[in-house]
Design goal:
The complex is a heterodimer. Chain A has 7 helices and 4 strands; from the N terminus they run ααααβααβββα. By secondary structure, chain A is α+β, with helices and mostly antiparallel strands. Classes of the chains: A alpha+beta, B alpha/beta.
Chain lengths: ~140, ~575
């Protein structure tokens, strides 16, 4: 872990005022880096005086955390409507695209665009998403 | 400025009304998730560019979802003295023409969806134009649309009309007047009103809200908490996301009233991870409400203090369950625990806690404003009020609608323009619910009505299934969902769901054997009885309800190795 990351973690801890809100602290770290490193977990464990296993339990239980970094993220909706409208096939197509961390989303809340996906934080139809991903590669 | 009473509220209402009924031309874009997913932001950028080029000074704003999700991206033009014009399926290419027409006072005919002659407040109608009826006859008026006539939009009254990030517009529509009224009432009387209104929890359980409040009110301990559950994790339902994104204040107002009634001074708004826009808008709404003294210390000069914090979920379905949700807020792993004790006695940090779904909260200001007598006139025998329904699946016009409880399912499908193909079934209540075949269309909407028929109202998702969909495949899909989302704490759910999914996989891929269905039934009942929480108990619902109504389809897969709808291909005869 470099000095910069350490500084960020300190800031997050300071902001949370050493509260017991472990989830909140970890979410801040995830939000900042898109993943939580082993080093960050060790550091937080020491500072918060919480066993490393507790933090590991949290980051592996909750889906919002990732242990590996990813530059580009695509979330494919596998909600019911998207499933009925070909979401499974879309997921398989996108999965093979490479260069992206492909996640399943349980309903993105835009069933009118089914099958839908979220590409780097932007909602769009599966077709539009695949076009965009082609262009990016 | 802090709101201390009616006078201040009126001042803000006047300001907000000027925004909703501007004295100059105003163009708005619908920017909830349904619009954004169809390119609303590109359209907005285009409109801003065109406005700059053609006539700087035209106001450009954003609103939430008006329910016509199939028409997105939606753009509205409000010109003084004219009805509001709503355009649908607007593309970047058509923006120039649209702005030009707006400036000239003309209408782009092929993009118009409807016009609106007046806006509906809670108690009054405010016309956009004095000329009623307006001579623009070829464009249908909003209130006369068949789809709107069949609805009663109270919870959704502001959605798609106001800017969700502007509290003044919410107040202009009558917002926060219920809070002022509630603060003059005795907490006991508020609870009584809610109880008499017959409001039942909109999260799925349908538990009477007033009774929950009463139990928490009389629970021992001075410190009490209130939690608003915005953890809609079920696949296939977007209505809560939409309400959060389109009208966050209506929920917040309900939370504050509930907190006052219960004597809670701290509350949490738990919002599902993966709804970043909803989180952003709720946070903004809390900031705005705090700035006006509607949250914080001495709310509206009533000596009542209440703070509300947003808590982001962790992306786990089981956290919609009350005790798991509490664990998540406390920063622990979100596994449900055994009840009793119920949260109303021992909830967040061991204190009495009320957890209500966000739509339940949005009903509260309505009851306070109009009274329980008015409220309970709407609905069926045991389910009162209205219900927001997310109408999706194979339906012609997917969207967000609101109908009184008791409305026959047939009418709900009609509001969405009917099924895209031949209607086969309706799936209600998310994965925990069930399917109802087309022969059940006369069933009235309600908690008990749907439960008796073997399904569930749930939180109001309705997925229309046509003849092109396979029930075995759908059940396999839902069961796989539960397998993914089972927290693994109790055996019936962890092991049972996995086994069930494995057998369904076999049936769907031509490896099913005689006796599989009996075995699955044999497996399902102990899971229903023995699982620790609702997730496990209801994980067998998709199987049991599809088996009840579509046994033949299962048998075709097993005996003839045929998928009647042609969805399952692997291992199947052609």
């Amino acid at each position: 872990m470099d000095a910069e990351e350490k500084r960020v973690l300190e800031l997050i801890l300071k902001k949370q005022k050493g509260s017991a809100d472990l989830l909140g602290v970890l979410q801040e770290v995830e939000g900042k880096y898109g993943h939580v490193t082993r080093e960050a977990l060790s550091y937080l464990s020491e500072k918060l005086e919480v066993p490393l296993s507790t933090l590991y339990h949290l980051v592996t239980f909750y889906r919002c955390f990732h242990l590996e970094p990813a530059e580009k993220v695509v979330k494919v909706c596998v909600g019911t409507t998207c499933h009925l409208k070909g979401g499974k096939a879309l997921y398989q197509q996108v999965e093979g695209a490479g260069g992206y961390r492909v996640e399943k989303a349980r309903c993105l809340g835009c069933c009118n665009t089914a099958p839908a996906l979220e590409l780097d934080g932007e909602l769009m139809s599966g077709d539009a998403g695949r076009e965009r991903m082609k262009g990016a590669r | 400025m802090k709101i201390r009473g009616e006078r201040e509220l009126r001042t803000i209402r006047e300001k907000g009304t000027k925004l909703l009924y501007p004295s100059e031309l105003k163009i708005t874009i619908g920017e909830a998730s349904c619009g954004l997913s169809r390119g609303a932001r590109i359209v907005e950028e285009g409109i801003r560019e065109e406005v700059k080029r053609q006539k700087p000074g035209i106001k450009v704003g954003t609103v939430g979802c008006n329910g016509f999700c199939s028409q997105e991206p939606i753009v509205e033009v409000i010109a003084p003295g004219k009805p509001k014009i709503t355009y649908g399926r607007v593309t970047r290419e058509r923006v120039k023409e649209l702005v030009q027409a707006a400036i000239r006072g003309e209408v782009v005919k092929d993009l118009v969806v409807f016009r609106t002659d007046y806006g509906d407040m809670l108690d009054e109608r405010i016309p956009y134009t004095e000329q009623v009826p307006y001579p623009l006859k070829e464009v249908t008026e909003y209130h006369t649309l068949p789809t709107i006539k069949k609805q009663q939009r109270y919870i959704l009254r502001n959605s798609g009309v106001i800017d969700p990030e502007n509290i003044e517009e919410y107040i202009a529509r009558g917002g926060y007047s219920s809070l002022l009224k509630a603060l003059t009432m005795k907490p006991k009387d508020i609870i009584k009103q809610v109880k008499e209104a017959g409001l039942r929890g909109r999260g799925g359980g349908g538990f009477p809200t007033g009774i929950k409040w009463e139990a928490c009110f009389s629970a021992k301990g001075k410190e009490k908490y209130i939690i608003c559950n915005g953890s809609e994790g079920e696949p296939g339902i977007g209505m809560h996301r939409s309400l959060l994104e389109s009208d966050p204040h209506s929920i917040i107002e309900g939370i504050i009233i509930a907190a006052y009634a219960l004597g809670a001074h701290e509350g949490y708004f738990y919002i599902r991870d993966g709804y970043p826009l909803a989180i952003k808008r709720v946070k903004k709404a809390i900031e705005e409400a705090s700035a006006l003294g509607l949250l914080g210390e001495n709310i509206c000069n009533s000596a009542f203090n209440f703070t509300l914090k947003v808590k982001r979920g962790g992306g786990v379905f089981v956290c919609g369950e009350e005790t798991a949700l509490i664990a998540a807020i406390e920063g622990r792993v979100g596994e449900p625990r055994q009840r009793p004790p119920f949260p109303v006695e021992s909830g967040l940090w061991g204190k009495p806690t009320v957890i209500n779904n966000l739509e339940t909260m949005a009903n509260v200001p309505l009851i306070i404003s109009k009274g329980s007598e008015w409220y309970k006139k709407m609905g069926s025998k045991t389910s009162k009020g209205t219900k927001v329904i997310s109408l999706t699946g194979n339906i012609k016009n997917p969207g967000l609608i609101e109908v009184p409880m008791g409305t026959p399912l047939r009418e709900i499908i009609e509001i969405g323009g009917g099924a895209a193909g031949k209607l086969k079934a309706i799936q209600t209540g998310g994965p925990s619910g069930g399917v109802l075949p087309a022969s059940y269309l006369d069933l009235p909407l309600g908690f008990d009505e749907l439960k008796q028929a073997g399904s569930m109202l749930g939180s109001g998702g309705m997925v229309v299934i046509d003849e092109g969909n396979c029930m075995v495949d759908l059940t396999r899909y839902f069961t796989a969902f539960f397998e993914d989302e089972s927290c693994g704490k109790c055996v019936p759910c962890r092991e049972g769901v996995t086994k069930m999914r494995e057998i369904l996989d076999e049936i769907a891929t031509g490896k099913g054997e005689e006796g599989d269905l009996a075995y699955l039934e044999h497996l399902a009942h102990p899971m229903q009885d023995g699982a620790a929480c609702a997730l496990g108990k209801t994980s067998v619902a998709p199987f049991l309800s599809t088996l009840k109504h579509f046994r033949k389809e299962y048998e075709a897969h097993i005996k003839e190795k045929k998928c009647p709808s042609g969805v399952c291909k692997e291992g199947m005869m052609k």
